[in-house]
Design brief:
Layout lengths: L4 E7 L8 E7 L7 E11 L1 H8 L12 E2 L4 E8 L11 E4 L12 E5 L3 E3 L6 H5 L2 H14 L7 E4 L5 H12 L3 E6 L4 H7 L3 E4 L5 H4 L3 E6 L3 H7 L3 E9 L6 H7 L2 E4 L6 H12 L7 E6 L3 H9 L6 E5 L3
Parallel strand pairs: 9-10, 9-12, 10-11, 12-13, 13-14, 15-16
Antiparallel strand pairs: 1-2, 1-4, 3-5, 3-7, 3-16, 5-6, 6-8
This protein binds NADP nicotinamide-adenine-dinucleotide phosphate (NAP).
């Protein structure tokens, strides 16, 4: 590499989209267990604007300025001395450590254990749309809910970044899927494999659903509260938005879990196999250049993206 700086989008203070600044920053130096990745594409997730707003200050350790974005697909340009399994030129994808600088940048240093070879059947824009949401779905449905073939799962926000992959993952496990979204997304939910669709703007899901083995809650609040009553005895409510009440779970004779996604190169390798086998695909809502990160945040914060918003960084 001949230059020591790169283009990146950083925040120097917490606030609205206007605190996102496109600027020159030093190219990161990889640790011995890191890969240095030339970023081809980075996806935007709700956690990005939650961090930008300062909502997660008590929960995550960040120093400002901070590069946002924890979904990346790109090419390895350097590997630390302790790295095994990857070499310069490999095409990889990752959900990097959220307490380090993210991927709204031309380069990112990522722990090699958090990365995997990207799905061969996807380009970088589509591959970047996968890691954070697919790991969230995996760790919620497989690790926490232990979803089995023949079980029924209610998946809220099936058209969202997490939900659209969760529906496909649950179907790949052989489960029956009930999906919620607004009417405009019925076609998408059915195409992804949902067996039953509920337009949450017209029907209260608890009026038409009962005795499910698992609920996957990506909405929280009132949606989570109303979800308890549709579980069968011993069923499980898994949320990725707010921790469900242990007392309510015990009183109703069901189980609950809160999942905060952890990076895992191993799980990403398994997810890449599912994608290359044609059993899962990311849905893209919009692709924008890095210079339009502010607009990408406005769309994400609107709460009605259909799949993922991706920043194309380097062609
Ligand atoms: N704990 C963790 O590790 C973790 C990991 C990933 C995500 N999350 C959190 O999970 C949440 C979802 O993430 P995401 O990436 O999937 O968000 P997203 O892509 O922005 O979700 C947008 C989707 O939500 C749907 N939606 C909105 N209100 C709904 C409702 N009341 N019922 C059903 N669907 C509704 C919209 O469908 P319509 O347009 O049809 O309304 C839209 O398709 C976020 O809060 C995120 O921060 C947590």
């Amino acid at each position: 590499m001949t230059t020591s700086t790169m283009k990146a989008v950083r925040i120097h203070a917490y606030g609205g989209p206007e605190v996102l600044h496109y600027e020159d920053v030093p190219i990161p130096s990889p640790n011995p267990d890191d890969l240095l990745i030339r970023v081809r594409a980075a996806a935007v997730n709700p956690v990005d604007w939650k961090i930008r707003e300062g909502y997660l200050q008590g929960f995550l350790k960040h120093e400002l300025p901070l590069i946002l974005g924890w979904d990346v697909s790109g090419e390895v340009v350097a590997a630390g001395s302790e790295v095994t399994g990857f070499k310069v030129g490999d095409e990889v994808y990752a959900r990097p450590d959220i307490e380090r600088d993210g991927a709204y940048a031309e380069y990112i240093a990522v722990k090699a254990g958090d990365a995997a070879h990207k799905p061969a059947t996807l380009d970088h824009v589509h591959a970047a749309a996968v890691p954070l949401t697919a790991l969230t779905a995996w760790q919620s449905l497989i690790d926490a809910a232990r979803l089995q073939a023949g079980q029924t799962v209610l998946i809220h926000a099936a058209a969202g970044g997490v939900g659209s992959l969760a529906v496909q993952l649950a179907k790949a496990r052989g489960a029956r899927v009930i999906a919620t979204a607004s009417a405009v997304n019925i076609g998408l939910a059915m195409e992804l494999g949902a067996d039953q669709f509920i337009d949450y703007t017209k029907t209260r899901f608890e009026d038409v659903v009962e005795d499910v083995d698992a609920v996957f809650d990506t909405i929280g609040g009132d949606t989570q509260e109303r979800s308890w009553q549709v579980l069968k005895p011993g069923g499980i409510l898994v949320s990725v938005v707010n921790p469900p009440s242990k007392e309510t779970a015990a009183a109703r004779g069901v189980r609950s879990a809160f999942v905060f996604i952890q990076p895992s190169g191993e799980q990403l390798a398994a997810i890449a196999r599912l994608i290359d086998d044609g059993r899962m695909k990311p849905i893209i809502h919009a692709v924008l250049p890095l210079t339009e990160a502010r607009q990408a945040h406005v769309i994400s914060q609107g709460g009605h993206a259909r799949g993922k918003i991706v920043l194309r960084i380097v062609d």
